[in-house]
């Protein structure tokens, strides 16, 4: 022996074994075999879900809340309203996770579940066919923030004369204390139903055998009570970092003047008179991220975009007495965020014009679902009591009615005593009696059976394409809806031309392009990742690089502090820029800094780098720089700038924040089995403690016969 | 620290230190941690004060232990009352409740 210590000789074989086992362990962990495969064998994660989230305003919280560690319930597929008895009273294994098809997603079922919420762990909605009508919005949209208040006119307030949305059940504005999710994909629904049929079905009325199929939903919302509370909690300074619990809703309005002004000069412009052509961009649904708004908002802004294109082609040469502002307001569904912001900016000299410069307003409301060949012109009876306003409105009506000459429809005025439908124009009226008209396809209440719901989609507008067309051919195919909207756009463009003082003889040359309209409808309602949007889009912001073919979300979203708008705003901005702007020869670096060039000015114009087409013989896109008067104007409710979170004047909507949202299904054992396992474990623990205690006290008796091998081999 | 090995005078000094709260000669945070120091006093010196056979310093140690015990019970009563009231009414107090809180739970009023 060479004189090593005793420990090394005895320990050496053990050390080698230890090192080998460590190496094996690391090999398995770092290779593809995942270390937590047990979790994967238990849970099936559901990836394509849309949750119902919590929104707050000055007085209420609406939406859904789960508990912080998720809500678990045994899955029950609801077959009819009578079947509700099983989860609510008869079922032996509460709480239940109720799976509904869309036809059963009604207010009465949801309210019954809300009242029995101790037995209902959550609700999952599977959207299938559209019901005949469904509107989760209120019957009188934006009733407290429009112009019809008690002081303005007592009889017209709170929809006393006309209930605009009679099918509204107010489901979006209810508060649920269990999570409600919507499933998007069909594969996952099949997995859930298979699990249900395998384990949870009641056989011959007898009790169910464990294990049962259960689902767990996590959608814990951080904000509570109302906007004032959550904004206060977000801004409190603690020694640890403050936690933001809610964010105000907001976005950007898209504005474009036909003849642009210096964008740094705010306030009143002498001798300038502007006609505002307005439309709404956003909409919502019960599940906010699933909002589509085909009739509610898309029909209006697509018409206005087409009218802008038609007008800009015609007004290159002719001088006009008045300017025209194309304004696309965002956030209108949530108490007129965009339009109230613009009026506030105008009143406080924070916009390039002010209210004195506004001559009249023409707003395009819901125009796609006609019940005849007429479109209706709504005006405000109270402001028309003033003779000047009345004369201007009559003039505008005359311009509108004469502009439909040669077209297949006509404009009809509504009853004089009827108030305006919910529209951005109401916020302007709240500040000043401005003459204006709202175009709509409904004479009294809405023709839209799915107002602000998930079903207001392409099918609702009868956007049908022949089945043998490829997506590119569908993009170019002119549908009937597109044709009718084109005619409306033509009429609007002609009216605006006349209203701005254009020459009457030139009017009939103004025509909207049906191809543009149908491409826009396809892009906004069917598939936004199409070649036309890609041509017009920006290469810098990959919002158009949408991996799914689904349309963008129409809900206004949260006002981000970075200058990032959401996909819909960018789409409309780039579309309007391309339809009304001019292409230039500037290079990409010149496009970013055009002030250095003699003829370009960033005060008047904005310069956007557009992706362009791929020419037939190459793979590179021919991008170019567009000079346009389109600007994005911030649209956040003035209540947040003023710090007045209980405002009755402005929108105070905020959305709660959350940590994560997920859903998963797994098999759950009976409570008795869980308790038994726990009991056995505790018993084993105590037994082992006792045994150890006895062994240690009697150690000298038990181990005295074994002698330590003490061979001194060294 | 094993009390068995200390002489009796040192036991008394230690008990006094824990009673007045100036362990390590720092009076400042002695008062803040008094309830805990008093609890330590009671638990540690209980055997010394009441169980062991009498010695000279034991009477003083007994007084310190009794006073510590009383003070500790008083603190427990005050704290329990305040904590119960605060936990129950914090949500109703709204703004005041939020300003009094160190961390505010998420998602519940």
TrEMBL record, chain A:
Localization recorded for this chain is:
Membrane
This protein's source sits in the domain of life called: Eukaryota
Q: Name one GO biological process term.
A: Notch signaling pathway
Q: Name one GO cellular component term.
A: plasma membrane
Boundaries of every Nicastrin small lobe domain copy:
51-223
Record-annotated membrane-spanning stretches: 675-695
Membrane topology for this entry?
A: Single-pass type I membrane protein
Key words of the record: Glycoprotein, Membrane, Notch signaling pathway, Signal, Transmembrane, Transmembrane helix
Identify the stretch annotated as signal peptide in this record: 1-35
Gene3D superfamilies attached to this UniProt entry? Zn peptidases (3.40.630.10)
One Pfam family in the UniProt entry: Nicastrin
User: Record's SUPFAM superfamilies?
Assistant: Zn-dependent exopeptidases
Q: According to its UniProt record, which protein family does this protein belong to?
A: Belongs to the nicastrin family.
Among PANTHER family, the record links this protein to:
NICASTRIN
- Protein name, as recorded: Nicastrin
From the broadest rank down, the organism's phylogenetic lineage runs: Eukaryota, Metazoa, Chordata, Craniata, Vertebrata
TrEMBL record, chain B:
Q: What are the alphabetically sorted keywords of the record? A: Membrane, Notch signaling pathway, Transmembrane, Transmembrane helix
- Cross-referenced Pfam families, in alphabetical order? PEN-2 (PF10251)
- Which chain regions cross the lipid bilayer? 23-46, 67-89
> Per the record's keyword annotation, is Nucleotide-binding included, yes or no?
no
- Has UniProt tagged this entry with the keyword Transmembrane helix? yes
Name any GO cellular component annotation.
Golgi cisterna membrane
Where this protein primarily resides, as one coarse class? Golgi
**Origin, by domain of life?**
Eukaryota
Name the GO terms of the biological process aspect: Notch receptor processing; Notch signaling pathway
Q: How does it sit in the membrane?
A: Multi-pass membrane protein
Q: Could you tell me where this protein is found in the cell?
A: Golgi apparatus, Golgi stack membrane
Q: Which PANTHER family match?
A: GAMMA-SECRETASE SUBUNIT PEN-2
Family per similarity comment: Belongs to the PEN-2 family.
Q: Know the name of this protein?
A: Gamma-secretase subunit PEN-2
Species source reads: Oncorhynchus kisutch (Coho salmon)
Name of encoding gene: PSENEN
């Amino acid at each position: 022996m060479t004189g090593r210590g005793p420990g090394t000789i005895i320990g050496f074989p053990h050390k080698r074994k230890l090192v080998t086992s460590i190496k094996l362990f690391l090999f398995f962990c770092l290779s593809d075999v995942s270390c937590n495969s047990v979790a994967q064998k238990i849970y099936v994660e559901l990836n394509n879900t849309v949750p119902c989230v919590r929104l707050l305003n000055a007085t209420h919280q609406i939406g859904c809340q789960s508990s912080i560690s998720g809500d678990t319930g045994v899955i029950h597929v609801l077959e009819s309203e009578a079947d509700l008895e099983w989860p609510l009273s008869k079922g032996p294994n509460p709480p239940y996770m109720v799976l509904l098809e869309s036809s059963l997603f009604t207010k009465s079922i949801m309210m019954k579940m809300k009242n029995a919420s101790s037995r209902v762990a959550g609700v999952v909605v599977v959207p299938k066919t559209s019901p005949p009508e469904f509107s989760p919005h209120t019957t009188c949209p934006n009733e407290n923030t429009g112009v019809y208040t008690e002081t303005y006119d007592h009889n017209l307030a709170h929809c006393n004369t006309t209930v605009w949305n009679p099918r509204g059940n107010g489901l979006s504005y209810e508060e649920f204390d269990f999570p409600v999710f919507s499933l998007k994909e069909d594969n996952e629904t099949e997995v859930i139903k298979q699990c249900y049929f395998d384990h949870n079905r009641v056989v011959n009325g007898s009790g169910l055998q464990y294990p049962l199929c259960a689902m767990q939903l996590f959608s814990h919302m951080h904000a509570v009570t109302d906007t004032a509370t959550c904004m206060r909690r977000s801004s409190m300074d603690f020694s640890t970092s403050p936690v933001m619990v809610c964010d105000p809703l907001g976005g950007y309005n898209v504005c474009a003047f036909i003849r642009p002004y210096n964008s740094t000069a705010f306030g009143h412009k002498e001798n300038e008179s502007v006609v505002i052509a307005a439309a709404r961009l956003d909409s919502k649904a019960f599940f906010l991220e699933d909002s589509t708004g085909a009739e509610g908002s898309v029909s209006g802004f697509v018409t206005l975009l087409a009218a802008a294109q038609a007008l800009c082609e015609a007004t290159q040469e002719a001088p006009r007495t008045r300017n025209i502002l194309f304004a696309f307001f965002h956030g209108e569904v949530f108490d007129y965020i965009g339009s109230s912001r613009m009026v506030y900016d105008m009143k406080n000299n924070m916009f390039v014009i002010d209210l004195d410069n506004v001559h009249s307003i023409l707003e395009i409301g819901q125009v796609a679902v006609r019940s005849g060949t007429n479109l209706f012109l709504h005006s405000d009876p109270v402001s028309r009591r003033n003779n000047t306003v009345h004369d201007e409105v009559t003039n505008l009506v005359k311009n509108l009615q004469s502009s439909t000459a040669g077209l297949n429809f006509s404009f009809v005025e509504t009853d004089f005593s009827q108030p305006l439908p919910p529209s951005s124009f109401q916020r302007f009226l709240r500040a000043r009696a401005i003459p204006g008209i709202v175009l709509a396809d409904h004479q009294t209440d809405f023709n839209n059976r799915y107002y602000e719901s998930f079903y207001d989609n392409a099918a609702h507008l009868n956007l049908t394409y022949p089945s043998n067309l490829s997506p590119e051919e569908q993009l170019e195919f002119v549908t009937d809806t597109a044709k009718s909207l084109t005619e409306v756009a033509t009429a609007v463009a002609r009216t605006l031309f006349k209203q701005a003082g254009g020459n009457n003889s030139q009017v009939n040359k103004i025509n909207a392009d049906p191809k543009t309209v149908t491409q826009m409808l396809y892009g906004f309602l069917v598939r936004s990742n199409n070649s036309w949007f890609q041509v017009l889009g920006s290469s810098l912001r990959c919002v158009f690089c949408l991996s799914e073919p689904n349309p963008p979300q129409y809900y206004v979203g949260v006002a981000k502090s970075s200058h990032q708008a959401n996909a819909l705003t960018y789409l409309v901005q780039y579309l309007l820029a391309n339809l009304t702007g001019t292409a230039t020869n500037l290079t990409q670096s010149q496009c970013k800094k055009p002030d250095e060039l003699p003829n370009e000015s960033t005060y008047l114009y904005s310069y956007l780098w557009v992706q362009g087409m791929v020419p037939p013989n190459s793979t590179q896109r021919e991008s170019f720089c567009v000079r346009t008067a389109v600007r994005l104007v911030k649209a956040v409710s003035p209540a947040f700038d003023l710090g007045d979170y209980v405002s009755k004047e402005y929108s105070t909507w905020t959305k709660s924040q959350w940590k994560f949202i997920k859903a998963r299904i797994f098999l759950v054992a009976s409570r008795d089995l869980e308790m038994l396992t726990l009991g056995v474990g505790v018993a084993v623990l105590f037994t082992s403690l006792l045994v150890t205690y006895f062994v240690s006290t009697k150690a000298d008796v038990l181990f005295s016969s074994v002698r330590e091998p003490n061979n001194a081999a060294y | 620290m094993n009390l068995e090995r200390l002489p009796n005078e040192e036991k008394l000094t230690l008990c006094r230190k824990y009673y007045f709260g100036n362990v390590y000669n720092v009076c400042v945070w002695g008062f803040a941690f008094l309830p805990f120091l008093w609890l330590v006093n009671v638990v540690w010196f209980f055997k010394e004060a009441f169980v062991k056979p009498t010695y000279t310093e034991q009477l003083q140690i007994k007084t310190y232990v009794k006073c510590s015990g009383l003070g500790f019970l008083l603190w427990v009563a005050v704290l329990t009352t305040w904590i119960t009231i605060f936990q129950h009414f914090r949500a109703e107090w709204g703004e005041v409740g939020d300003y009094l809180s160190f961390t505010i739970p998420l998602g519940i009023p």
